[in-house]
Write a structure and sequence with these properties.
Length: about 375
């Protein structure tokens, strides 16, 4: 959110339950890796991920577009969306594919107008709506489109019940960061704590979502702070949610936490996925109104910093999403930690809209190994 706003609706923001059926996890054959053949990094990431997760060779979709982060709408449609749609159709995978894994080196965001009816979007969130388009559903260019999987209960993601693709991006500052992120996902276990850090005494709307997240998790698995201090130094962290650089008491790009393999980070920050280009080491988060301290157009914290720090996944936004469209931590951690869902399914359970600004950096198939026992509160 921007430094001034703090409301819920369109405020700029700059396994297994007891008695419930086990959820069906996504399988490697249901994943399509999207590779930009014009990018050596994209090809390398796609090949590494395919080996690591044993994705069949016939599940790699290759497009060719300039290696740039921001793309015009016409170029997105002709060079990314249309080739992927044709490939899915020709391979009979329109309904069989559930997950698209985009790769570093593929454009990140689509330029457009701003505001609640913005025509801009992240490439990944626009691709999430591709299944609707392939089924003849009209997806308006302006504004977000409701996510049919958001906040569902006791249902596994499947077509045709949920006519979207779940999209996650294999991205970080470098191939080494991305490889480490993928490797950590293979080691993920369901243990450790979820850290929930409010700001200014927890008076903002997003803080109530953090309280709800705490109530949906077993109490021994929550570390929550409702004061203005910034939590740090917690060990064995499997999840983290905060206001990021929108917390006026936060003075650093990240906070020091002891990450477990599989750890997921989500923050209420407008532009944290604006770029995956690494800033200089001396750069630090700042405040709006002082552009000399911006990195790639913003003073806000960065999604990729968490991957570098040791997290296995992190959410973000390419442009202003507004608080109401940011991931809901109570849904994310309930699905991921309590219900044992994959990272992709947990994220799409947590976001209200597609064809919008959201990005998930991480291995979509990452799933915490089931605990011996974990019940409903």
């Amino acid at each position: 959110m921007t430094a001034k706003a703090a409301h819920i609706c369109f405020t700029p923001i700059a396994a297994i339950f007891l008695g419930a059926s086990p959820v069906q996890a996504q399988r490697p054959a249901e994943v399509v890796i999207v590779v930009n053949d014009a990018s050596a990094l994209s090809r390398t990431v796609g090949e590494y991920y395919a080996r690591a997760r044993q994705i069949p060779a016939g599940r790699i979709c290759r497009v060719r577009t300039a290696e740039r982060e921001e793309i015009e709408r016409a170029a997105y449609e002709s060079e990314i969306e249309r080739p992927i749609a044709l490939w899915l159709n020709s391979n009979g995978l329109v309904d069989k594919a559930l997950v698209l894994a985009t790769t570093a080196g593929l454009p990140l965001k689509i330029r457009g107008s701003s505001g609640t009816g913005s025509t801009a979007a992240s490439v990944d969130s626009e691709l999430a709506a591709l299944h609707m388009k392939l089924k003849g559903v009209n997806v308006p260019l302006a504004g977000p489109r409701a996510n049919p999987f958001y906040a569902t209960r006791n249902k596994s993601f499947a077509h045709p019940a949920f006519p979207i693709y779940m999209v996650a991006r294999l991205a970080g500052y470098s191939f080494e960061d991305i490889r480490a992120m993928i490797d950590r996902g293979l080691l993920a276990e369901n243990r450790g704590v979820v850290v929930l850090d409010m700001k200014d005494g927890g008076r903002d709307g997003g803080d109530e979502w953090l309280r709800r997240a705490a109530r949906k998790l077993p109490p021994e698995r929550v570390v929550m702070d409702e004061t203005s201090r910034v939590l740090s130094g917690v060990k064995d962290v499997i999840g983290y949610a905060s206001w990021g650089s929108n917390d006026p008491n936060r003075k650093t790009r990240t906070v020091k936490l002891g990450w477990l393999p599989g750890a997921v980070v989500t923050e209420y920050v407008s532009t944290n996925a604006r770029t995956f280009a690494e800033p200089p080491p001396e750069w630090n988060i700042g405040r709006w109104g002082f552009p000399a301290g911006f990195w790639r157009g913003s003073p806000q914290s960065l999604t990729a910093d968490w991957i570098r720090a040791g997290a296995t996944a992190a959410t973000g936004h390419v442009y202003e999403p507004y608080l109401a469209q940011s991931p809901r931590p109570e849904e994310l951690f309930l699905a991921y930690v309590v219900e044992g869902r994959t990272l992709a399914e947990s994220f799409y359970r947590a976001i209200p809209a597609v064809s919008w600004m959201n990005v998930l950096a991480g291995d979509p198939l990452c799933r915490l190994k089931p605990p011996a026992s974990l019940g409903r509160r």
